[in-house]
Amino acid sequence: MRKSIAVVALCMASATAWGQSQTLSGRVLDAAGRPVIGATVVEKGTNNGTATDNAGRFTLSSRTSSPRLLISSIGFAPQEVTAGSGEISVSLAEATTSLGTVQVVGSRSQNRSVTDSPSPVDIIDLREVTTKTGQLDVNQLLQFVAPSFNSNRQTGSDGADHVDPASLRGLGPDQTLVLVNGKRQHQSALVNLFGSRGRGNTGTDLNVIPAASIERIEILRDGAAAQYGSDAIAGVINIVLKSSVDELTASVNYGAYEAKYRRDDQKFDGGNFNANVNYGLGLGERGSFINATLDFNQRQHTQRADVPSPDGLARREYGDPKVSNVSAYLNSKFAVSDQTYVYAFGGANKRQGDAYAWTRFADDDRNVPAIYPNGFDPIITSDIWDASAVLGLRTKLGEWDLDLSNNFGSNRFEYGVRNSLNASLGASSPTSFRAGGFQLQQQVQSVGLTRNYKTVLQGLNLAAGAEWRHEWYTLFAGEEKSYRNYNADFTGGSQGFPGFQPSDEIKAQRDNLGLYVDAELSVTAQWLVAAALRYEHYTDFGSTLTYKASTRYNLTEFLTLRGTYSTGFRAPSLAQINFNSTFTNFIGGDPVEVLLARNNSAVTQKLGIPSLRQETSNSANIGLTSRIGSSLSLTLDGYYIKVKDRVVLTSQFSARDGDDNLDPVIGADLEALGVGQAQFFANAADTRSLGLDVVLNHTATLGTGRLSSTLAANFNRLRIERVQTSGRLAGREEEFFGAREQAFVKASAPPSKINLTFDYKVSKWGALLRFVRFDKVQLIDWDGAPMNYKARITTDLTVSYSLNDHLQLAVGSTNLGNVYPTLFNPQLTETGGAWDPVQMGANGRFYFAKLQARF
Q1: How far is Cα 231 from Cα 228, in angstroms, rounded to an integer?
Q2: Which residues pair with 657 in a beta bridge?
Q3: Which domain holds residue 79?
Q4: How far is 8 from 20, CA to CA, in rounded Å?
Q5: What is the pLDDT of residues 783-829, one digit of tens each?
Q6: Does residue 40 share a domain with residue 70?
Q7: Same domain flag for 88 and 127
Q8: Does residue 104 form part of some domain?
Q9: In whole angstroms, how far apart are CA 172 and each of 157, 165, 744, 746, 776?
Q10: Is the same domain home to 62 and 176?
């Protein structure tokens, strides 16, 4: 086998050497004749590329007689040229949206470039990111690239172990709207109940979309509910799928963690393997294409239960879940005429996971020694299907651009439990169970009209449209033995995750109609003003009206001021309204049966908990952008976000206190239901966030290579201004949404995250060095004492080498310093490990290698 690999490598190297090399040189300028610094110049179908220097110049060696060069830079329209004899001169036009392109998030104007948006927008080139870093999925890629984005892998958190929650600017996962090619992506059916992030929230599972299918990710760091609808309180993430043609890319990646804490002699664990392929096929001369991606990823368990602790173990198994993920995605466009085309995109994702649940030790009364004489560690399994499909038509309607589309999405999550038992069945209990689950589906029909009036002052863009959305939510029961109690002297249901019961089952649906209008007026060449207005009506809670106003002013050629003010809203998800379950929680290591009652249940109505209503927000952003000299750029954006009536998961109310006294309000009701505690979804909190985003970029020539340096930071402070109770629980604010639950909300993001990156490219070599500082985070343990997680700095290092024009090898390490979060007593943390999932993750140093091919 090794000889065969060596022969193949030698043949490829020899074939490359036989080609006659030529040196190409040229210059890349913008429309005004200024040099474009750091523009990417790539020979099509190869990994052979370079970047322009401070004068916009480049040199590139090629072994092709008439190579095609792709020139691109953020903020400019890409251009493809054929290199001939002599110097190549390229003039890049500013990137604008048009009938044939996907518009940049934050503006519906067809003449608006990303560089002059009145709102802050980050553009992340996935090709650049994925070739130089060790992260493989979208959430982890963004976690270490975008400071305002936060996502941690959870462990010991039931469903959240399988679907990573993510957020912008420290708000909830469900307060960020996700678009794909500008169309609303459906949310996950999961509502997060445990873990240190996203408790009580639903969110969008970004990891169902393979990174290999993505051209770029646009992050609008600004409230945008008036532009795009519900969920856009914190901002919008727009995922733009690849549209490249006549190019095959493939990648094989593998990495593993250094196993610092293990009871055995295993040196590495958590092996992560990924393989993907992408190909685009051009159809005719009108820009029609089909671009397809296949992706496979498999991640193994990590084991971090063996951390030295004077208080002993809470669990014997603790670490990342095992996950297998298969995805297929498609992006396409078919021209009907010069002014009309049909587009279709979407994909399917199949995920299976195994996650550790809490240990049942040998002497636990929930164990059956005849089955597990040494106790057991239940495994919660997931079977997740996710699919989406968008079909649309874009054409001209007189002077207007018309966009008609239909969008369908579905997410289905099925639980299983193995290595478990139902103690009430004794020695006859099965050891694996089907535990039920839930499904969320979304159907969206939309129509949008856009027109630009070039003769109104310096240009007026008008847009209007309507969107009708229908959503379904289903919760279905598990098999009988997963939830039933067959002997009142023992605990019933599957240990690790009791199955959903027939009484939990529900089918719910709702409709939503949205109408919007927005306008952008260039008063002068320097001054832009914009406004948007949106009306939404939901059949389950009523109507809302939101607006947004923004402006941008170019003080000089190198300095621009911008600002926005907006109102926003988020409709409570169908899962938050309808979820109902009885589960086992571990409090200080002791199991307690907890009822999570749906919003309109008999229990919540008896306690006077009102129906959920929409969250509302007011947000403002003021910032500046500046290009200092020819190679240095700076953006500063300060923001304020106030959210009223946030939907949260309340604290858990106990039937009896520590002295075994019955709670006078809720105790009798809970004991009649056979549970020790209960919690609910409620509009319980008002929050206020103040923050600052800073991005500083510098490009310089260093020797014969190019060094790109980036300093990016987010500073964020979230305060809970008010906790409100109602009904029979009025006046019990500390119990209703106490300090411990408040700490989880405030820890959704560290107070600051600072990213310093150095990216150097010379000849066939490349190197990336990145430092990320995660600020301190405070949680509260089960005894009510603070857990202060200290600030941490992680270091990532990647070295890459182009083996030939088509193959590139990259090796490196993330968290090179093997840094872990602060250690605590596992008996008192949320998840039963020596730390909760905070900041940068808890698996230590990761080594990886990537082999990438481009033809």
Answers
A1: 9
A2: none
A3: 21-92
A4: 21
A5: 889 999 999 999 999 999 999 989 999 999 999 999 999 988 888 88
A6: yes
A7: no
A8: no
A9: 17, 9, 11, 10, 19
A10: no
